[in-house]
Amino acid sequence: MNVLIVEDNADDRKLLHYTLEFHGCTVLEAHDGFEGVSQTRLHKPDFIISDALMPRMDGYQFLRAVKADPDLASIPFLFHSAVYTGDAEVGLALSLGAAAFVVKPTEPEILWKKICAIMESAAAGQNVATPSSINESEEHFLREYGRIIATKLEEKVGELKQSLALQTRADEELRRLNEELTREIAERQKAEKTLRAQEQELAAIFENAPFVMLLLDEGRRIHRANALASSLAGSPVAGLLELHVGEALRCIHVLDAPEGCGFGPHCQTCVIRQTVLDTLETGKSHHQFDMSLPHSVNGKEQSLPLLLSTTKVIVADKPMILLSIQDVSELKKLEAQLLHAQKMESIGTLAGGVAHDFNNILTAIFGYGDIALMSMSADDPLRQHIESMLQASQRAATLAKDLLLFSRKQVSDRKHVDLNGIVRSVEKFLFRIIGEDISCTIRLDSGALPVLADANRIEQVLMNLATNARDAMPAGGSLSIVTERILLDDAFVAAQGYGAGGMYALLTFTDSGEGMDDDTCQQIFDPFFTTKELGKGTGLGLAVVYGIVKQHDGYVTVSSEPGRGTAFRIYLPLAMAAEKEGKAVAMSKKPARGSETILLAEDDDTVRDMAVSLLESFGYNVISAVDGVDAVQKYRDHGDKIRLLLFDVIMPNKNGIDAYDDIRKISPDIQVIFASGYSAEAVHQKAQEDANVQAISKPYLPSSLLALIRSVLDK
Question: Which of 43, 88, 206, 638 has its CA 20 to 30 A from that of 494?
């Protein structure tokens, strides 16, 4: 049987040790309750014998700690104390879960029989002491414990008075001296106890501070260091003592200076040295001073961002400096990630605005160019020039579309699809893109990975990543495409500085190509940023990937090192429920003429003039407005003959959607076609909810607009 003795009296502890070893027990020892808790948790003894009154943590507190731990609560606990005040003390011990309370001195054999009886009861499942529910109250425990201690003190004082009363009058002077001495001792003990408590508190604060704490002497050498200092320095605390700060923290300049810390060419400008010296000389404290330390980690130089504070203190009548250092590497990393996300958001907003204006210009070019073609004969020598212009404009429209994808202004047709199915559908195309000199392995998750996504957009992500991997391996290599189900927890969110936890589908593209440095990785998703030669890339491939993933409420990360390849990881939220698919609006491919009246609202003069010219050339009557407010007023004036609204979405004073909502209050069944430089989410939502709403994206071909107008009017 393993028995733990918790006793601060060495003689009593030794006697118990001999008695228990004589009966074949394995004996463990602890000097007080704190050590008893540690030994109990470490060894889980079969039986515990504890004194009641001990320094630091007494028997009652130790008993409470044991019984509060579910793994230790069943261990039988016996009080063995020389201080006994009566039934109240025993009652408190039993109410806290003790099996028995034995008063010292006790014959060893009697004590052994008591232990055996308790163990037999415990083995039989009988008389297992459990804490009383009422004594679990902290207030009750403190009240009972205080009353017992007060009783003991009263008894001691009574005994002292009784002994003093027995002395003769001849001892009066001696008694007076003894009383004075007693008071002095009590005051000194109280002062020492208070001092010890303060020292313990300060030591606890120093040791457990959430940042590096160093106590420096007047020579700027380390007199004391806490555990975090040891962790940051990569050395035991004892190895840091008597070192200068730069030596302890492995400052690169110190390692290169034979003179040591404080004497090298860089030391005169060292922020730590200057701050410590200023505090020593002036007594002025410095708080949260921002600096960067050239730091050596595993033989590699790193710039370690720090916040340092200094305070002058007096220790043992000697001036010292309390230096606190906080490693803010993670904070700086999160700050950089936040700034990067804000930069990407700003670039996206700018890209969306540029694409919107660009599409307005292209709409006019497409419109006038198509109108010109309609008026030309098939053998007109200028026809080829117009067609070449329109082809170039189409490439420009594709570029604008890529910008919209990056800025997430392009509405996607998201449905519930299996990510594995999308990868399978483009597998052959991926092999064609990367070529024969690159080996490609595709490993898909064994189960379906349902995501709410636009399959065409996800296919574009796969194509762009495959193209990027191919260009990174001009001499051949290997590409791995893996899908899996993953749980993003708080640790991921904390590490990335953004995101929401939950189940995600993870798509990983890993190539063995040239790789990238950190600076390139920071810019890799910026639009028009490219590492390729001039003319070999638009710089929008990965920007489009970023925009599409963000549009799908996902996240994309990149990890790479020069010469060690690159891995792109795309996280898409897993979806559960199915979604109803809407029906596409069928459009006539061949434009037809009409005679209806159309209210056109467009703030761009060139686009408005082109649209008016186009519609009137096909027989329509057109009432034009320059913004939403003008359009509502024009409808109030001519609403009886207007059959269709053709509105731009983004206009000054009042946008197209708000203008349509106002007009619908006058004519609930009026039909509208929204045209915009980017597909607004609000338009997409209205088109799904309202059968009278249709949409066309700029730039549009006149034939497409005319076909859509005719299909709407003929319904």
Answer: 206
Residue 669 has pLDDT above 50, yes or no: yes
**Can you name the residues that pair with 226 across neighbouring β-strands?**
none
Residue 570, SS3? strand
Bridge pairing between strands 450-453 and 415-418: antiparallel
Strand-pair partners of 181:
none
Phi-psi map region of 653: left, alpha, beta (phi>0 left; psi -120 to 50 alpha): left
Cα of 43 vs its chain's centroid, Å: 38
CA 546, chain centre distance (Å): 20
Q: Cα dist. 536→327, 517, 531, 545 in Å?
A: 43, 21, 10, 18
Under 8 Å CB-to-CB from 675, ≥6 apart: which residues? 363, 602, 646, 647, 648, 649, 695, 696, 697, 698, 700, 705
* Residue 488 host element (H or E): strand 477-488
Q: Are residues 189 and 307 in the same domain?
A: no
DSSP state of 268: G
* Residue from 45, 40, 78 nearest 59 by CA: 78
Final residue before a domain boundary, out of 275, 294, 327: 327
Q: Judge whether 631 lies within some domain.
A: yes
Q: Which helix (H) or strand (E) holds 331?
A: helix 329-374
- Taking the CA atoms of residue 131, residue 135, residue 141 and residue 146 in that order, the dihedral angle to the nearest 10 degrees is -100
Rounded Cα distance, 711 and 588, in Å: 7
DSSP H helical segments within 263-316, as ranges?
A: 271-282
Tokens of 565: 């390849």
**CA–CA separation, 489 and 487 (whole Å):** 6
**Residue burial 102-132, b: 16+ Cβ < 10 Å; e: rest:** beeeeeeeebbebbeebbeebeeeeeebebe
Question: Residue 88: which residues within 8 A CB-CB, separation 6 or more?
Answer: 144, 147, 148, 151
Q: What are phi and psi of 435, to 5 degrees?
A: 85, 175
- Among candidates 665, 668, 662, 698, which has minimal Cα distance to 680? 698
Q: Are 254 and 264 in contact (CB under 8 A)?
A: yes
Question: Of the residues 327, 347, 381, which one is the last residue of a structural domain?
Answer: 327
DSSP state of 209: -
Q: Tens of pLDDT along 19-61?
A: 999 999 999 999 999 999 999 999 999 999 999 888 888 888 8
Between CA 75 and CA 703 the distance in angstroms is 89
Which residue is listed with tokens 């060419």?
265
Residue 589 confidence (pLDDT) = 44
Structure confidence by residue, pLDDT tens digits, 340-378: 556 655 655 555 566 667 677 777 787 788 777 777 887
Residue 433 pLDDT level (bands cut at 50, 70, 90): confident
Backbone region of residue 6 per phi and psi (left: phi > 0; alpha: psi in -120 to 50; beta: other values): beta
Show the domain range for 318: 209-327
Do 180 and 33 sit in the same domain of this protein?
no
- Give the pTM: 0.38
Q: State CA 98 to chain mean position distance.
A: 46
Tell me if 581 is assigned to some domain. Answer: no
pLDDT in tens, 53-109: 888 888 888 999 999 999 999 999 999 887 655 677 788 888 888 999 988 888 989
Looking at the domain assignment, is residue 544 inside a domain?
yes
**Closest to 363 in 3D by CA, of 105, 607, 687:** 607
pLDDT band at 457 (very low <50, low <70, confident <90, very high): confident
CB atoms within 10 A of CB 636: 11
Beta bridge pairs of residue 676: 697
